[in-house]
Amino acid sequence: MRPIANPPPHVYTTVDLDRAASRRRDAAWLAERRRDPTSRVVALEDLQLLVVDGPTGPDPFPLDPSLLGGAVPERAVFLGLLEDRAVFALDLEGERPGIEGRFVELRALAPLLGAAEAGLLAYARALAHWHRTHRFCGRCGAPTAAVEAGHVRRCTACAADIFPRTDPAVIVLVTAGDRCVLGRAPRFPPGMYSTLAGFVEPGESLESAVRREVREEVGLELGAVRYRSSQPWPFPQSLMLGFRAEAVGGTLAIELDELEDARWFHRAELLDEANRPVRLPNPDSIARFLIDEWLAEG
Q1: Spelled out in words, what is the top-level CATH class assigned to the domain 167-296?
Q2: pTM over 0.90
Q3: CATH-assigned architecture of domain 1-126
Q4: How do residues 112-147 score in pLDDT, each as one tens digit?
């Protein structure tokens, strides 16, 4: 059987981690874990991950707190328990530790990671982004402060609680028999075409969002819409909800505000890796899974 890239649970999904939500308000327990030498830390700077090179190459596993000066700082976010060890995420905020290391983007690091590591680092990155973008209250404009081990930000003036944000987005492979539609946005790498996607709007069901996005972007009407799987996408804070759908009407018409091109591709030309006319999405994406899953059915 033809291999399928990134099958569920997809890359960046949290696996094997006990989020231990009941401990987020336990100040005494958290203080002990911050002093515990077996605890571990994911360190970030500008959303890049601090990687320390081990004897055989990059060692992206969360760091020993001794490398960061001993105890885990109080501002670090408690992520949960991995193999009974507490794991924290620490935004260095310019205070770079005096250790040999380098900062790497998560997507560049992902091919080197196991599933548990990739999910943990994605979780850390998403929370770090949320903290950076919610330092002020959306209700009154006053500064907010992190509480509950970094899983809530509370307004220092009106006491409003702000919770971590995840933006739902639908992503769909549209097919008709042995053909599928792939589109190209201006921001894509040269030659890359992908599935269609867009954010869910207020008051929409997921299926309605799929139909609207496809109609808006390429002018096609859909019959059956079938859910396939979902993927956390911490770039910066989305949940990608994957679908397959059959085109039953309309003519391909590109919305140039969204896409610079879209085309029908036959399964046979995408299966021919040596002569494939376009570059497919990276293997860490749910877009690639949706395409590969369909190709494997041919």
Answers
A1: alpha beta
A2: yes
A3: Alpha-Beta Complex (3.90)
A4: 889 999 999 999 999 999 999 999 999 999 999 999
